Amino acid sequence: LTLRQFAAAAGFNAHSFIANVLSGTRSLTLESASKVSRALGLKPAERDYFDLLVRFEAARTADEKNDIYD
Prior knowledge:
Elements: H1 3-10, H2 15-23, H3 30-40, H4 44-58, H5 62-69
Helix pairs in contact: 1-2, 1-3, 3-4, 4-5
């Protein structure tokens, strides 16, 4: 599976978004994380955990991170 094929399967218009996420120059939003988790075929509990990881990464303050961690 190529990056271009995965991006298309996930519903992204351009594969460059996924490339940028993988290189660390872009971050996933909850919406894009949902697309990625569906394309990966994650189970519901795995999707929930993946969403928590994305929310944790996007949190800007220690309080936000602590809220997610709890």
